[in-house]
Structures are given as structure tokens and as C-alpha cells.
Amino acid sequence: MSEFEQPNTEQPKQEVTEPPTLEEQLAQAQAKAAEYLDGWQRATADLSNARKRMQREQADFQAAAVIRTLEKLLPIVDDVDRAFTVVPADQTNSDWVNGFRMIQRKLQALLEGEGVTFIATEGQTFDPALHHAVTHEAADGYTEGQIIAEVGRGFRLGDRVLRPSMVRVAKGA
After folding, report:
1. pTM, 2 dp
2. Residue 170 placed within a domain
3. HEC secondary structure over the chain
4. pLDDT per position as a tens digit, 78-98
């Protein structure tokens, strides 16, 4: 500093801020409340969506388990049905055959209880979504693509084919 300069003894002016008014405080509080409400609603929606997704996945898993079990049961049903085709005539009313008939009825009741139905083949037109052609052969009295005979039964569960019917199909002349 030079001799002629005077030291600055003035205090810098401080801005005086007034406290926010009640209206401003209310507006700030309402803005925060709206922000919190929005966050809460989003979290609630996310939780609800997660629950629904989990329930849907559990239902899909249970349905897949039922289908796998039913698919494994179908060969047993076939074997029991096949066994009745070779029962000697003199034993058709024996106790052990009647016991196996009860087992056969229980298996069929179990399948029906789960909603399993047989795929129709008699007189039907061949449908590759429902039938598996074992042979194509000329047959009198049948039109092209008509099912001649069923070799193995097919099953479906609702709209899903558990196993297609094995069939013989008529071919054109």
C-alpha cells in the first residue's frame, strides 16, 4: 500500500436472506411428498409385477412337471391295455385279471382327472399335428389321407399333444 491510499475499513456488505415464507415451505414439502409418493408407487408396482411373474413361473413349472409325469405314465397305460389283448379265454374272469382291470380303470381315471383325452382316429383325416403315420398304403373304401387303423393311441392334455396317435393312412390309387 502506498501512503496515499487509505486502507479499506469498510465491511463487505452481506446479503441478508429472508427466511422462506410459509407458502414456500409448503410448496417444498409438497414437492418432496410428491417425489416420495412417486417412488413408493413405483416400488409397489415393481413388487406387484414380481409377485405376478413368480406366480406365473410357479404355475408353468407345475404344469411342466405334470406333463412330464403324464408322459412317463403313458407307456404303462399302453402295456396294461396290451396285456388284456393276450389274456387266455379261460382266464378272462379270474381274480388276477379282474385285479388288473381295476388297475387299468384307476390309470384311466387318473388320466381323465388330469384332463388327458384320447386323440380320435377312427374315420378321421390324417393330421400331422395329431397323428404319426406308420404306413401309407392302398386300401379299398378309404380316400387319400384317411386313417385306416390306429396302431398306437395318442393323448392330449388340453391343446397340447402329449403323444401323437400312431396310424396307418390310406394313399391314392
Report:
1. 0.67
2. yes
3. CCCCCCCCCCCCCCCCCCCCCHHHHHHHHHHHHHHHHHHHHHHHHHHHHHHHHHHHHHHHHHHHHHHHHHHHHHHHHHHHHHHHCCCCHHHCCCHHHHHHHHHHHHHHHHHHHCCEEECCCCCCECCCCCEEEEEEECCCCCCCCEEEEEEECCEEECCEEEECEEEEEECCC
4. 999 999 889 998 988 899 999
